[in-house]
Amino acid sequence: MQKKWYRLDTAALIFPAIARRNWSNGFRLSVTLREEVDPKILQRAADDLRRRFPCYYVTLHRGFFWYYLEEISEEGGVRVRRDFAYPLTFMSRGELKKSCLRVLYYENRIAVEFFHSLTDGSGGKIFLCSLAARYLEIAHGIRIPRGELIRGGEETPAPEELEDSFLKNAAEAAAGRKEKAAFHLRGTRNPEGYRTLTTGILDTASLLEAAHRRRVSVTVFLAAVMAESVMAIQDENRPRKRQRPVKITVPVDLRRLYGSRTLRNFALVLNVGVDPRFGDYSLEELCRSIHHQMGAGATRQNMAGIIAANVQPQQAALLRLTPVLLKNLVMDWIYRKSGESGGSLNISNLGTVELPEEMQPWVERMEFIIGPQRSYPNNCSVLSLGGKTYVSMIRNIRESELERRFFSRLVELGIPVEIECNES
Q1: What is the per-residue burial (b if ≥16 Cβ within 10 Å, else e) of 284-297?
Q2: Which of 54, 157, 168, 404 could disulfide-pair with 161, CB 3.0 to 4.6 Å?
Q3: Are residues 155 and 274 in the same domain?
Q4: In terms of domains, do 251 and 140 share one?
């Protein structure tokens, strides 16, 4: 029987091209249960979801002109493994030829790590919640209702769930890519690619109150506090006239703007922040500036222009007929020039997860982690559940100055923070 294959979506095309030794673009979602995970039941749950999420049970291959995803053979499947080492260990090309998805367990925790060519955080959240729901159904003989967040293995995916929504929503004209290079933190690299994860557990009600008092969203408020922290570090290391803009890269889920149901990548980023050379900024001024930048940038029209800037090159006849090895060089050059230069680090907020009532007694917490980027060492991701907000800050350098400043500032602002770290 011939295997089914998928073209990489528009956002996914870049990731295999820019991957390097000991760096691959991935993210992790995890759920902690109030009981120890049974790996045999977890394997059954993962197998049961294969039919519902066919575009995730795939391997990555290089063709002559493009990379593509091919379904995993029935005999292979996605093998559940005990969690190992540290979050988001490198996904080698050899591993990606076997699976672009990791399903992991450790004590009470179920984690899924995704190569970013599969999907974005919103798609990953649906998969993890569906996996946890199916696990609980098998383990406890309960029935969890289906919906937007929970998908069942007995269902067949709708065609629009597997589409490349970028292609449908591109404008006729492309937006420009040029941005001023932003300030990037530097530090002493951890040995052997080790990633240090610091998680701040915040009281969601206090966080919401602090954001709403300034009439901004939680994402804007956290981006402002992060920008303030990065600016303070730059102030200590560079004279004002030599400083660069400090911008926070914020992903925007385009499904809400365009009504898409795709389970594949459908997000773009905005770089929002200020230029410290123009003067000092209070936190309130940062909040107002970032709020208005997000409002102006995250519109259907503006995003359609950015989509077009990504879609049009892949439709050009010359590029389509260029061998993939040469495409890799071109895309790598473009990425180095414009891919990460415009931002200082990411803040990716998946918002509040509302689990069905049937799941809530069994679930203690959820977390979302994105890895460090290729050209800067720190990243931040956020998810809220059950009155707690989990802010995960990851780095591949030894210096912890950014986390110290960021979480200390939140405490100063009246938001209780409990700190966990994978370093002793």
Answers
A1: eebbbbbbebbeeb
A2: 157
A3: no
A4: no
**Segments of 225-336 assigned E as strands:** 246-253, 267-274
Q: Looking at the structure, do residues 107 and 195 belong to the same domain, yes or no?
A: no
The two three-digit tokens of residue 402, written as one number: 């950014």
Domain that holds residue 281: 191-421
How many C-beta atoms surround the C-beta of residue 178 within 10 A? 8
Task: Say if residue 214 is in the same domain as residue 95.
Answer: no
In this structure, the answer to whether residues 106 and 254 fall within a common structural domain is no
Say how many domains are in the chain: 2
Contact 81, 103 (CB under 8 A): yes
Reported as a single tens digit per residue, the pLDDT across 264-298 is 999 999 999 999 999 999 999 999 999 999 999 99
At 243 the three-state DSSP class reads coil
Count of residues in the chain: 424
**Are residues 203 and 122 part of one domain?**
no
80-120 confidence digits (pLDDT tens): 999 988 899 989 999 999 999 999 999 999 999 999 999 99
First and final C-alpha spacing in the chain: 51
Checking 69-74 for CB contacts under 8 A at 24+ apart, the result is 69/5, 69/6, 69/7, 69/8, 69/100, 69/117, 69/118, 70/3, 70/4, 70/5, 70/6, 71/3, 71/4, 71/5, 72/98, 72/99, 73/3
